[in-house]
Design brief:
Chain lengths: ~260, ~300
């Protein structure tokens, strides 16, 4: 960034200051958030997530035992649709730039490609948190209904579960962004995103020699601990290692790929 | 102001762009001419930092494009009108650009109207746009940050005759108010009317460049000989660079009398010696680019 600051202090003649200063990351993040929802595909994905989340509450209210109709159950089950589908939005946010060729326009307006990717990561984190918050509000409303309908309606939930559920959402959205950046191809990234960890899980369960490794590297297994209150330090360590493999590594390699790839 | 210095891009063994240099001054329209695959788009992508050059450099406003934090406020770019998300509305495409540059999105409807996208068009998705409408949207996109420089790749593509006429007026007016325009085309006629300067490229190399008036006036002399090597040696002694054509003739930037006398003195047999003609520019363009078609299109 030293070059930019040097330029900012002494802009060449005729260059407006607005053209020299980098676009603030907050503004870029807002743009990326908006881009998640302003296409037909993105909008429908969000609508589907909303409807499916509403359906989870309906299922709990309609079919669960009265004792199981608690805020914690409604919230936990309600996060399922977004934890599965929000990563697809994360994938699309990167891959659509290449499949729809908008990268050309995006990177001519913001040549610092790393900043665009950073904004996509921030937008992914924000939409994950936002969806969890919306699910909590919805679950609360459903819990009120449960109380009215004679359900258990317990409000208490272990506070650790709030942070852990947020983390779960964020991890999977960023995994989507990472896979998108690494593969830069929508159908491929979606298929690999869903298939590869599952294949790994199956391999880990069938091949005895892999079982110990899978306990550390299978994100489907390690992330299950996030659903239980008060994770142990060993569980955190396993989650950290598998997250490094499935989230950080794709993000890192994907960033290198996006920075290097010729845009045409 | 755009400065291109010795830009070269190689893909494997192939030189898509070979040592290209030119300058676009404020207040002028520069026509970047060449057949398909001559290296126009690759050169423009290198100017805009989308393709890393193998060697050489390009600056816009004295600065490499990548060092502009928010280039849209200084340089408007339209490289491919079809490269917009099909699922976004035209209005949304411009709104995103305005937001990115930190501009009020309230200017969007007026900017769309300025390029003739009115009525239902702004609310329709780009998928439903014709190529001409996409070009108009692309022009609005390039100009929304009120830039001083415009870089446009084949902007007349898909526009109807009325649209081309309109675009010429728009760009002429932009340049007359001090703007710098670089626009590419594979059709001479498209840029002949509007360009002040021409840069002609073929097979990745600059074939000729200069003021349109000079190029039109001095299309040169067409020379055909039985002994090309002797003619080349003669021209070299005279300090003149001839441009060989695939049909064996050579376009020489000199008058017929000078060449004829020199050839007679040197004993070089001439088969043909005539002024390149009043329609010289087109002839020159065709001659210069003949044979270079599609050579660079493999990319």
């Amino acid at each position: 960034m030293t070059t930019t600051t040097a330029l900012a202090t002494a802009p060449p003649a005729g260059l407006p200051a607005g053209a020299v200063a980098p676009v603030p990351l907050t503004r870029l993040t807002l743009v990326e958030l908006r881009k998640l929802a302003d296409t037909r595909a993105g909008m429908w994905l969000l609508i589907v997530i909303g409807v499916a989340t509403a359906a989870t509450s309906a299922i709990v209210l309609g079919w669960a035992e009265a004792s199981g109709q608690t805020f914690g159950a409604l919230y936990g089950f309600g996060l399922l649709p977004s934890s599965v589908l929000l990563p697809v939005l994360g994938i699309l946010s990167v891959t659509s730039e290449w499949s729809q060729r908008t990268a050309l326009a995006t990177f001519t307006l913001v040549p610092a490609r790393g900043r665009v990717l950073a904004a996509k990561v921030s937008a992914g984190v924000l939409i994950a948190i936002g969806s969890a918050a919306a699910t909590a509000v919805w679950a609360a409303a459903a819990n009120l209904l449960a109380i009215a309908l004679g359900g258990d309606g317990t409000w208490t939930m272990d506070s650790s579960l709030i942070w852990q559920s947020l983390l779960l959402q964020v991890i999977f959205v960023l995994m989507g962004v990472g896979f998108g950046a690494l593969l830069l191809n929508t159908p491929l990234a979606i298929v690999i995103f869903f298939a590869l960890p599952t294949v790994w899980t199956i391999l880990g369960e069938t091949i005895s020699g892999l079982r110990d490794v899978a306990a550390w590297l299978d994100i489907n297994v390690t992330s299950q601990a996030l659903g239980q209150p008060d994770m142990a330090s060993g569980e955190w360590a396993r989650l950290g290692v598998s997250t490094a493999l499935w989230v950080l590594l794709p993000l890192l390699l994907g960033t290198v790929r996006v920075l290097r790839r010729e845009v045409s | 102001m755009i400065e291109v210095r010795n830009l070269t891009k190689t893909y494997g063994a192939q030189r898509a762009v070979d040592d290209v240099s030119f300058t676009c001054e404020p207040g002028t329209v520069t026509g970047f001419l060449g057949p398909n695959g001559a290296g126009k788009s690759t050169t423009m992508r290198m100017i805009c930092g989308l393709t890393p050059p193998t060697s050489g450099r390009a600056t816009v406003g004295g600065v490499p494009y990548q060092r502009l934090g928010s280039p849209g406020r200084h340089v408007g770019v339209l490289l491919d009108a079809s490269a917009q998300h099909a699922g976004r509305t035209g209005r949304e495409v411009l709104a995103l650009a305005a937001m990115t540059m930190g501009l009020d999105t309230a200017r969007v409807p007026e900017r769309l109207a300025r390029v003739g996208l009115t009525g239902a068009a702004p609310k329709r998705r780009v998928r439903a746009y014709s190529l001409g409408m996409r070009q108009r949207l692309g022009l609005a996109y390039a100009m929304i940050g009120d830039p001083a420089v415009l870089i446009l790749d084949e902007p007349a593509n898909g526009l109807d005759p009325e649209g081309i006429h309109w675009m010429r007026g728009l760009l002429r007016d932009f340049a007359d108010r001090g703007g710098t325009v670089l626009l590419s085309s594979h059709l001479l006629r498209e840029v002949e009317v509007i360009a002040d300067r021409l840069v002609v490229i073929g097979s990745g190399r600059i074939l000729t460049q200069g003021d349109k008036k000079d190029l039109l006036g001095a299309a040169g002399t067409l020379v055909r000989t039985t002994d090309p090597a002797a003619l080349a040696a003669l021209l070299q002694r005279m300090g003149i660079t001839g441009t060989p054509s695939v049909d064996g003739s050579v376009l020489v930037p000199s008058d017929p009398q000078t060449i004829g006398q020199a050839a007679a003195a040197a004993g070089v047999v001439l088969l043909e010696l005539r002024p390149a003609g009043a329609g010289g520019l087109e002839e020159m363009f065709l001659r210069l680019t003949a044979g270079s078609d599609f050579e660079g299109a493999a990319r």
